Amino acid sequence: MEPKIKAMVAAIRRDYDVMFVIGIGGSYAGSKAAIELLPTDFPVVFIGHGYEANDMDRLWAQYQDQRIKLCIISKSGQTFEVVAALQYMEAKFRAKYGKDFTRHMIAITGAEGKLRTYAEQHQIETILHPDVGGRYSVLTIVGLFPMAVAGIDTDALLKGANFNKSQEQHLIKQYAEARYAAYQDGKRVEVMAVSMAAAQQFADWYQQLFGESEGKDHKGMWTSVLVYSRDLHSMGQFIQQGTPIICETIINIKDPGNQLDKMNQICVTAVAKAHQAAGVPVIKFDLERTAYDLGRLFNLFLEACVLYCNHLGVNAFNQPGVETYKKEMRNLLNEKNN
Ligand code: PA5
What we know:
Elements: H1 3-15, E1 18-22, H2 29-37, E2 44-47, H3 53-63, E3 68-74, H4 80-97, E4 105-109, H5 114-121, E5 125-128, H6 141-150, H7 154-161, H8 165-184, E6 189-194, H9 200-214, E7 222-227, H10 236-241, E8 246-254, H11 261-277, E9 282-288, H12 291-312, H13 320-337
Parallel strand pairs: 1-2, 1-3, 3-4, 4-5, 6-7, 6-8, 8-9
The protein binds 5-phosphoarabinonic acid.
């Protein structure tokens, strides 16, 4: 991370008690995953994932007496949810901080768009969103900035992401090929199972990465997020004996801080064995609950997703279906305003 950005991070940690982040899809999923999984020492609260003012009311009531920094992340700068959340927060910030309220905001956005114009009009400190699609941006400033503010060691995370490239390339290739082999074999659902609730957001990040990248041209697998051992008592039955359309990736996180970790490890090993015996293709990754290992896994799946999409013959980087609904929404809003 550049020294200028490090200084911005340090200033937020020094001058504020909490940072709110507005962003949706790839603009928040990865950083939230890291913040939920790794130890942190500064609160970062994610908002703007829908049109849910009640949620924002609740969070505002909780933090309104604290010094709040607002970080708005949007590559396009015009995503509806982001604009709506910004309007909501603008009113709150105006009331809290007075006419200089925009001094307490920071924007990460592309070179053009509504957010860029808004930031320029109000002289809001801005970081350029790199020219990388949201779901591929977790290892760029988009993902790293909120993580660094939360107190995560982003240098270690990036070190993990750049780990022993040649050895890692082999694993990435193997994973992409195994996933494609499962698809060719008729599997249509991939269970992405994590071994602790704190990693659920990581699985959500993965679900978005693969779902939005592969689900097009009537191809691809649906990624289903499960948390073990909790969901073994609900969906485990289907995986074991239901319609044989499932393959499974298990993320087993070793957590020496958890007194019951030994039990958890035994459980995950037993599950992998049982599911494999039932004919489910299972791939298991074991990792430590560290920034380094998480960086490794982020990179592994980012690269594997592109390779897998190449095998599948789809463009990993576009999302024409999402654009269609946005267009319909723009039409309805225009009708309403005319
Ligand atoms: O991966 C993607 O491209 C999307 O999920 C985007 O991240 C999401 O739609 C948000 O877009 P933006 O950053 O332009 O607000």
